């Protein structure tokens, strides 16, 4: 599937993530773990965060705002962005495709929770280099992937709509993170035995332990 087709799928089902049926704690504990690695605020400068693939729930945006970040959101789905702006009118949301979008600045924290894996497989390496390159020294990226050993792509059904997933595989992802100047601080199969994995990686420059 192309990014445009993925956007069309999410346009049709966007209200689910902003409705009462969706579990708003999804991913929050993992983000709190990642935030413990983030460098302290610079003097007289606010820390900046990007929610890449922000969707419509606003839960990551709310967490980051509560932690004192200036937050931006990004999503390829026009309906997701419309709902996100409705929920947080004071936040800057970008309607764009992460495959081609250029980050307007560097960030101290970037979340790509359940988002990169919807991009075409051939774009994954470039996206990861882009996000890692968009971190300030000591900045942190959290992202999810399919926890497989080798590349794979497939199209599944979600709420009656087709949805594409792809992964480069764990060995390749670790290579890319290192080549992009980042260090893997944590990786976990957080929904085992499901093959849902998340990475916490930090831009070289400062080291922070939990």
Automatic annotation (TrEMBL):
InterPro entries: Methyltransf_25, SAM-dependent_MTases_sf. Residues 50-139 form the Methyltransferase domain. Pfam families: Methyltransf_25. GO terms for biological process: methylation. This is Methyltransferase family protein. The lineage of its organism: Bacteria, Pseudomonadati, Verrucomicrobiota, Verrucomicrobiia, Verrucomicrobiales. CDD domains: AdoMet_MTases. Keywords: Methyltransferase, S-adenosyl-L-methionine, Transferase. GO terms for molecular function: methyltransferase activity. Coiled coil: none annotated. It comes from the Bacteria. SUPFAM superfamilies: S-adenosyl-L-methionine-dependent methyltransferases.
